[in-house]
Design brief:
The chain has five helices and twelve strands. With about 240 residues, the chain is an alpha+beta fold. Strands 1, 2, 3, 4, 5 and 6 form a six-stranded antiparallel beta sheet that branches. A hairpin with a 2-residue loop joins strand 1 and strand 2. Helix 1 packs across helix 3. The radius of gyration is 20 Å and the shape is elongated. It starts with a helix and ends with a strand.
Length: about 240
């Protein structure tokens, strides 16, 4: 049996949220929307949380290279931005992009002001999610140091990461005597830390004088791990600074 909250959510997504996102240039219906692009799947997905007497939602953003999606042969014509595949170039929950920098949920409550939450979520897409997706699908929008490896040069590294179900390296750049690897990783992901430690060991063993450490950061530029050469089978891991 459909509750009043569920009925309101269905109508709000259909009649207000979806048209609002399509007016911004996104295509889609109700729960998944995409930004037209020849190279990437640039996606926004609605994550719904339903509990007795309460219904709220938030938004997941995902960027997946279309070649990576085709090569991985996952089911479906395109990625679901609410799922984690390990091949994402970038992914984030919208709260990470907002000034609060924390999880943000919009709750739909029956009554005369039900549309306030929907309009606020559309505004969050307009002012934060959409500009970030546009910046990331544009190669000129990447910031950092000197490019260390091209996309083609990273194919072998990313093949290893895919085998271990670890998100691919999005960029490899040189900055301040460090090789900076950027990807959709989190500090709590122990597998990513272990596998990337091995990747860093490979880079450091090459003896390239242009860098003396390998730093891994997430797609928002937050430092995760710093790998430095030291005696032993693998480089040491130093915690990021304050």
């Amino acid at each position: 049996m459909t509750t009043p909250h569920q009925q309101l959510y269905t109508e709000a997504m259909r009649d207000r949220f979806a048209p609002g996102l399509r007016a911004l240039g996104l295509s889609g219906w109700r729960h998944t929307f995409s930004l037209p692009d020849d190279t990437y799947w640039a996606l926004i997905g609605v994550v719904r949380q339903d509990s007795p007497g309460r219904l709220r939602y938030t938004l997941d953003l995902s960027l997946v290279h279309k070649e990576d999606w085709a090569a991985a042969a996952f089911p479906g014509p395109r990625p679901d931005p609410r799922a984690v595949y390990g091949i994402e170039t970038w992914r984030a929950r919208i709260g990470e992009l907002l000034p609060v920098g924390d999880d943000v949920w919009w709750e739909l409550l029956p009554g005369p002001r039900w549309a306030v939450a929907v309009e606020d979520s559309i505004a969050a897409v307009r002012h934060y999610a959409l500009p970030e997706l546009l910046r990331r699908v544009d190669p000129a929008g990447s910031d950092g140091g000197e490019t260390y490896l091209s996309r083609e040069g990273l194919e072998g590294v990313n093949a290893v990461l895919l085998t271990a179900s670890v998100a691919r390296v999005q960029r490899a750049e040189l900055a301040d005597k460090e090789l900076v690897l950027t990807g959709a990783w989190t500090r709590a992901d122990r597998m990513a830390r272990q596998v990337l430690g091995g990747v860093a060991d490979g880079f450091l063993s090459a003896g390239d004088e242009r860098f003396r450490a390998v730093r891994c950061q997430d797609t928002l530029g937050r430092e995760l791990w710093l790998f430095e050469p030291r005696p032993g089978p693998a480089p040491g891991v130093s915690p990021p600074g304050p």
